[in-house]
Structure formats: C-alpha cells, structure tokens
Amino acid sequence: MSLTPEMIKHIAKLARIGLDPSDIDATCHTLNDILGWIDQLAEVRIDDVPPMVGTETEPLRQREDTITEGNCRDSLFSCAPETSGPFYTVPRVVE
Amino acid sequence: MTYVIEGQTGPWEIVVGLEVHAQVISESKLFSGAATAFGAEPNTQVSLVDAAFPGMLPVINRACVAQAIRTGLGLNAHINLQSRFDRKNYFYADLPQGYQISQFEHPIVGAGRITIELADGQTRDIGITRLHLEQDAGKLLHDQDPSHSFVDLNRAGVALMEIVSEPDIRAPEEAGAYLRKLRQILRYLGTCDGNMEEGSLRADVNVSVRKAGEAFRTRCEIKNVNSIRFVMQAIETEALRQVTLWESGQEVEQETRLFDPSRGETRAMRSKEDAHDYRYFPDPDLLPLVLEQEWVDTLKATLPELPDAKRARFQSEYGITFYDAGVLVAEQAVANYYENVARGRDGKLAAAWVTGDLFGALNKRGATIETSPVQAATLGRMLDLITDGTINGKIAKEVFEDMLETGDEPDAIIERKGLRQVTDTGVIETAITTVLEKHAKELEDYRNGKDRLFGFFVGQVMKETKGKANPALVNEALKARLKSS
Amino acid sequence: MTLTKLTLTEARQGLVARTFSARELVQAHLDAIERLNPTLNAYITPCPQSDVLKAADAADERYKHQKAGRMDGLPIGIKDLFCTQGIRTTAASAMLADFIPPYESTVTERLLKEGALFLGKTNLDEFAMGSATTNSAFGPTINPWKRADAPEIALVAGGSSGGSSAAVAAGLALASTGTDTGGSIRQPAAYCGIVGLKPTYGRCSRWGIIAYASSLDQAGPMTRSVADAALMLEVMAGADSRDSTCSPRPVPAFHQAVGKSVKGLRVGIPSEYRVDGLSPEILALWEQGITWLKEAGCEIVEVSLPHTRYGLPSYYIIAPAECSSNLARYDGIRFGLRKDAPTLDELYEKTRAAGFGTEVRRRILIGTYVLSAGYYDAYYLKAQKVRTLIMRDFEHAFNTVDVLLTPTAPSAAFAQNDNVNDPVQMYLNDIFTVPASLAGTPALSVPAGLNKAGLPLGLQIIGRHFDEETVLSIGSALEKAAGFTHRPTLYAGAGA
C-alpha cells in the first residue's frame, strides 16, 4: 500500500494539521518510506491471534460516585489562550 | 395499522430506527469527579480531566455502570459481562479530548426489546440493538457574539446511554409510542430523568423509505431532535422529502440532517460536510470493563416493578380495566398514589376517583400528583367512608371539593358540615310524606301510570334530606309507600 | 569532595551525617548548571535558583530535626513531560511553550513528598517522540561524552529522555526522572553511561505525565547506580486511583534486591538479538556481560524470541496510532498555542501546523492513517496481534529463565547530524528496547564498558512483569563486575 498526495491531504485534514502545499510531496515520500518498512509485518502469520490493547491484565477499577473535582474555572482559564466572560471562545461555528 | 405515503408511483412504506441519548442520573461524571447538576454557572462543573489537560486520565464511575446495567435489565436486554471503551476521534469545539470515549465494538448491553402500545390498543415489539455508555460533549452558544461561538464544558463528560433501536418502526406514531415507553421505563428505573427540554433525552432519527417488500434504501440521520412531537414531525417531513426525491428520479444521499421545527423541514448539516472517519480504536487508558454476574444479579433483584408488569398486576389485583391500568402506570408517582388509595379497598372505585375527580382537579389547578393537595391516605379514608355508608357518592364529591380547598380530613369535613348520611328510616319516612304532600299533582300522574316519575320522587326526597339520605333506603321506603298508599 | 559526583545514596548519607548541607549540595548543582547547561542544553527550564535554595534550607531543617524524607534534599532533574505545578511544562514543544500546569503529576508529587529538590525541567524529543533529543523545539541536547578520535563532533544524548541522561552524566543532577515508551529511558542512559530503569507497565502512575502512547508510556528513574534506581523507584512507584492502568500492587523494598546474590538465577540470551550488522564492539560487550554473570553464579541459557524483528514495525504503528489521538487535545482552545483564524477548522490546522514539529506531525499523520477506514485491519489490528505474539515470546522465555540479557542499543551515541533525514534509520536505534515496551516487562540499562572511541555502552536486563527485584539484583551484579567509573568529557566534577 502506498500513499498518494491526495491521501496525504485527506489524512492531514482528518488530523487537522495544515500542510504547506510545497511539503506534500516530501511528506508523501517520507511516509511511504516508513510504511514500506512497516510492510514487513505482512509476513507474520496472525491467524487466530487475539489483538493486544495493553499489558495490564486486571479488570477496570471503578470509582465511587462522589463529586471530588470541578469549580476551578479561574485555574483552568489561566491556561487558556482566549476566553470571554465565563466561556472559552472559538471562531463562530455554523451548524 | 399501516402507515403509507401515497406517492405518484404508488404507496411507500417508511423505515425508522432511533438512537436515543439518555443522560445518566449520577452525582458525578462518567470519567471524572466533576458535578453533573443542570443549570450551573458556565464552566464551573469542569475538572482538569473534562477540559482534557495534558496528562489527565479517565477513571470510570461505578454508579454510571450500574445505571447502564439496570437500564439494560429494564429493556429485557442481554448484559455483556465483558465490555470495552473505544475512542471515537473527531475535532469539534465542544469535544475537549478530540475524541469521545464510547463503546463501539463491545457495548455493555446487547439485544433487548420494548413493547409499545398504539392508539388502537394494539401492541408491537420494537427491537433494541444495543445500549452503550459514552461521554456527552460540551455546549456551544452561537448567539452571544457575532464572530465567535462560546464554549461551556459543564456537560462535557457527563455519562450518556446511547440506546439504539432496530429499524423496526414503521410509522411516526410508533416512534412516538417508542419514545414515550422508553422514557417511562427510564424514569421508573431512575436512570434518566427523561427531560427532553433540558436535553437529558435526545433522539437521532434514521429515516428511509421503500416500496413494500423491498430491501432497505439509503437512510438519512436527523440529529438531536428534542421533543417527541418533533420526532414524529421530522419523520413525516423527511419521509416525504425522500419520496419526492426518488419519484423525481434523484438519489437520496446518506447524510446527517437537522430538523427545523419552525419551518417544518429538514436540512443537511453544514458543519459536518466532511466524510466522517472516526478512527475508532480501543482506549488504551481504560482496561476492559468486567462485571461480576453476582453484581448484575443483585441489581436485577432490586429493580423496581416496571410499567408492563405493574399494569398487569393492577388489572388482576384491583380488577380494573387494561385501559385504566395503563393510565395509572404511565407515571410511577401516579401508580404509587393509586396503589396507596386502592390497597385493601375497592380498586375500581379507587381508579374512578383517581383518574376522574383527582386528575380533573389537578388539571384545573395545574398541579401534579407530587403537589396534589389531597394525599393518597386522605382520599383512601374518604373511600372508606363511602363504603361503610357514612356518606354517599354524591356527598363524597362535596367532601372531596372541600378536601382540595382546605386539606382537611374527610371525617372532620363531614362533622363540620353535618354531611353524615341519613340512615334513620323515621327521618326518611317523614321526608317522603312531605314530598308527596308537596307534589300531589305528580303523585296523581304516577298513579295513572307515569312510572318515570319514581326517579323524580327519589330526587325530591334526597333534596329534602339535603342529599344526605342513603339512596338505597330512600328507594326502598318510597317503593313501599307508593305501593301501599 | 565534589558534590556533583555523588550517587543519591552517598549524598543522602552525607546529609544525614551533616557532612554537607542540602544548601551546599544544591549550590554545587546550580553552579554546574550555570556553567554547563548553555553547552549541553540538558535543561529547558532550570528552576529559579532562589526557589531551589529555599527548598534546600527547608530540607536542612528537616535533617536537623531528623524528619527527613527518603529523597530529602537530593537535587534531581525532571523530564519536561511531567506536569509540575507552577513550573512551565513544555514537552519540548512550541505547542506548550508557555504552559504552566495548575497541577502536579503523581510521580513528581511523590518525589516532592519525600523531600526531593527539583533543579529544573530536562530536555527531550518533542512529546517524547524521538531517539536522540534532536526533535526539541528548544534545541537539541548535547551528549557530554566526546569521541576520543573526534572530540569536536557533538554527539546525541539519546532520546527521548536525553536531557535527563545528559544532566545526570555531566553532574547537573544527582538523578533524573525519565519516561520510556519504546526505549526512551534505557537508550539515552546507555548513550550517556548511566543507569536507566523502565519499570513494569503499570508500576508508576501516568497521571500528570503528558501522554505519547498510553499503552506503552512508563515513568522510571535515571541514576548513577543501580542502588539509586531502586531507591528512586520505591518513591516513584505505587497505586494511584487517578490512573486506571496503574497497578494496585504494593511496592516492594527494591533496595533490598540490590547486591543480593544472583547465584543459580537463569539468564536467557535471546538469539534473535544478534541482528545482522551489529557492531563487533557491542557483541563483545554482550559476551563480556555473559561471562560476568556466569562468574557471579548465573546459569546462561540460549532462548528464542522469534518475533523480535517485528517489534519495531509494530511499535511504529501502535505508538503513532495512540499519539494521533492523544495529541488531538492540542487544539488551541483551552491551553497552549493558538493561531487565530476565521474558521474553527482553520484555527485547528494553523495551530497544529505551527505548534507541532516535523516528527510529531509525521507520527500523527501515520497514526491517523493506520486507524482510518479501510486501513485499520491491515495496520493497527495487525500490529496489535503481532504485539500478542511478542508478549507470548516473552512469556515462553520466562518459563525457563528469570531474566534476559541483551545490549541496550545497537550502537554508541552518534553524531547530531546523523539520521536526521532518515526516520527509519533513526527508528532502528530502538530495536532492542521496543520489544520489552510492547510486552510491558521491566527493563534496566546498566553502563558496562566503553567502545574504542571511548563512548559508553549499555547492557539491558529484561525481567518478568512486576519482578523489578530480580532485574535489579542482576543489574547490580553486572554493575559490580563492570566497575564502570568513567566520566564524560564535559563534566561538572572535572578539575574540581
């Protein structure tokens, strides 16, 4: 499988990373190098092998339903690049 | 009952499936310890986890898991003892993590069903495909500023149950019945308050149309419809739009649309034009959710009686009609009220008073069962007084009116107003004598064969006794007197 | 006495005995940082001197009243991937160049609670993505070691925890924290001639550590001795209710495993690690390690880990996939860089293009691709299955042996300009470290010798899940046998 410049543009769009049009070919080339190297996995037989998500084997711990956090808007907003009153702001979105 | 759209090319059937997002009742969020209460100051119920700060991690809320299991059990569904959380990746201003933690491949609840009842009394089973837990998003406000949208993350991370139906629904009315029934079950279980105005229950509606016997055609999803009435309208409107498209030789495109109730139309969403590719994958921050069968059994054993079971029991235990039982179980509070009135008493009489006089009075006052001025025990006491002959049915209405006004106990009202039923035959005989003397003309007519006047005399005697006479005794004595004299 | 030369253990003894004060110890390090950091660029953000000295005075008070914690008064470096309350935390990214967290990571909180003094935030590859600390928005870290034959060439410190390894090697910290996703503690430790321990996945909480690949990231100590690594891990490790993947197991007294007899332990030598083109120097060192352990009474067993060579390509699917999702939160809205734009999508695209460096963007794109519709099964799902096979290889090997012994890296530190335009060559540096990361097993790198050019080389010991103790015992046996006392060219103690 090999990436085309069109696919690179699509992936960059999904990832919301702006690509300079002049960088697309070089990016395409590098990613294809990496993917070409990754393709050696094709030779591994994986019939009936279950996928592994992580290494911890214990079941998920569950916390009690109590309010322990929140009420820290000032602290949150101190890190924000832009706020207005009690809100975060973004360019106007049309739904 | 079949619903069809008569097109130019013949009848069209509609195919509808619903995805309902039900906000879970819990104190804190699904993966954080921030509060969930509705209506708080913007961005105050937000933790570092909810705002997706670097290095923050999700820890699941046991109560939300329990609510999902209980809901699954209430929908007669299979509980999956092992499930997993996945990330649904997309960018939006109301989604701080850049992904929603949801359950894609392995939901906590599998197949189930809901029985709905239609206006003609018919029932139908609608299949439930699955129920899964996921995070809610925040809220965007578009009307505060001309160039900006504002973001409030209070809702971000609140637990939602997404309940997905099979495409079994064939009429707008069925969709309405399904939603009402689902909401009723959720409220009985106490897992979701079902409040569509506040957004704690929202429906995405999948609509397609087809000719009878065909395979499914392309469907459109109408997002976030926030009332049952709008769901029904949206289905009608969207189905008509699709029929028009097909019949004019065009294709229906699979897309996400919005319903605009003010214009009565659906339109394609602008902000989600891109082909979605959510890149679901298992969330590596969360291990598999493994449930103990014992816990599920305990939750099952402590489930409240649900509407269908309660309705059947009311019918058999209190001898009331299927219809009345349906009215009484519609809301759990009403059912509890009714049962408190009916227990150990005449169930039919209790049903008549609750669905008749009580509902009428509450309606008039804009009150609910919770704010009713007459408590179940008080109404029950009044029924006792009817049954033991202290008052008759007519006086009872007066007593009830007084109860509504004053909140007094029926015994006190009867005492205060002297409404005790007259059972003294001497008093009744005297009243009969007075009435017959006063209405010699009518007596004459009666004697000449105008039998219908018997009722007139009963009425006059009741009036003479200010309504307090025992109607049965009046009947008996009057019959005897008219025969003998 | 040169205070910057000490191990944690020695320094603590000195503080207890009042041979020197915490203030003196800290001052020596602050001076060293002032002198060498401009050259090495080991720290992105040194902490203000007055703050550190004040904390040192408080530590001295505690020593005076015999109330000192286990790390009290010990000046250390913190990889700039751990969020530190009130101290700028950048992940070496322009995206977080001004980010001051209002919270403290669990691991650093535990170190602070035991009295550790933070000298500053150490450099790394941006978001921990790299093997050389050359992908930092704040410039590369320079290895304090120089080739004897070419002292003018600036070498890499390894990565991603290269700032931490350089600081410890050059005497700019007694020890440092690191994080390891595919070798980011062990490989820079080997390149800088120090000890680096990646604990079992789940041993240390990830809460407050900026995520790269959640199923692989693990914090660990980078120190001058195996005993120091044991001491520091005891403080860093332990259950945390805020991290669902953090193990609730109790933390053993790791220091007791150090120096323990290794007689009779079975050491596996995986034949698949003898890869083509492995340098004879590395092979020779490995043989030397085998001999040392034999002499210490270990039984050497040849084992097979047949899927070893598929570890690296699987890793370069899994880690980018997770990172593409983990880094979606850097969107210019709630924290970090924001590039204004007329529409939301443009804001995202401009912010993320400007905020992320080349390698980070590259991994996000790869990760997005391998998860996308139509490619998920061929890439991501396949890699997860190969991960299962790699895990099974280890389980199988650990049926017959107690630990595995391998080289840490296929080479010594290389020049700053090498491999920069060839990502695949760069990725190959992780070939020996990645399998243990995928399996989640603990692994330790111990400096074991110098190559001909006078650069340090490391040996890696891999153990069973949650059996850091055996790893530390073997590690200390190797340490003792190797007697590695070499110091780098750029060194705070030099001439003092």
Give short descriptive properties of this protein.
heterotrimer, A: 95 residues, alpha+beta, two-stranded antiparallel ribbon, 3 helices, 32% helix, 9% strand, C: 496 residues, alpha/beta, Amidase signature (AS) enzymes, eleven-stranded mixed beta sheet
Question: How does this structure look, described?
Answer:
The complex is a heterotrimer of chains A (95), B (485) and C (496). Chain A starts with a helix and ends with a strand. Chain A has a domain at 5-43. In chain A, a hairpin with a 2-residue loop joins β2 (83-84) and β3 (87-91). Chain A contains 3 helices and 3 strands. Chain A is flat. Chain A is α+β, with helices and mostly antiparallel strands. Chain A has helices spanning 5-14, 24-38, 73-77; strands spanning 62-63, 83-84, 87-91. By secondary structure, chain B is of the alpha+beta class. Chain B folds into 3 domains: 4-297, no CATH class; 306-417, no CATH class; 425-484, Arc Repressor Mutant, subunit A. Chain B has helices at residues 62-74, 172-189, 228-247, 293-301, 307-318, 322-329, 332-342, 347-365, 376-387, 393-406, 410-417, 425-438, 440-447, 453-464, 471-484, and strands spanning 4-7, 10-23, 60-61, 82-83, 86-89, 99-102, 112-117, 123-135, 139-141, 148-152, 159-165, 201-210, 220-225, 256-260, 265-268, 281-282, 289-290. In chain B, a hairpin with a 2-residue loop joins β1 (4-7) and β2. In chain B, 43% of the residues are buried. The model of chain B has no long low-confidence stretch (mean pLDDT 93). Chain C has helices spanning 8-16, 22-40, 49-64, 106-113, 162-170, 186-192, 226-236, 280-295, 311-326, 344-355, 358-371, 377-397, 423-427, 434-439, 468-482; strands spanning 43-46, 75-79, 117-122, 175-180, 195-198, 218-223, 266-270, 299-303, 403-407, 443-450, 456-463. In chain C, β10 (443-450) and β11 (456-463) form a beta hairpin. Helices cover 37% and strands 12% of the residues of chain C. The mean pLDDT of chain C is 96. Chain C is globular, with a radius of gyration of 21 Å. Chain C has 15 helices and 11 strands. Chains in contact: A-B, A-C, B-C. At the A-C interface, α1, α2 and β3 of A face α9, α10, α11, α12 and α13 of C.
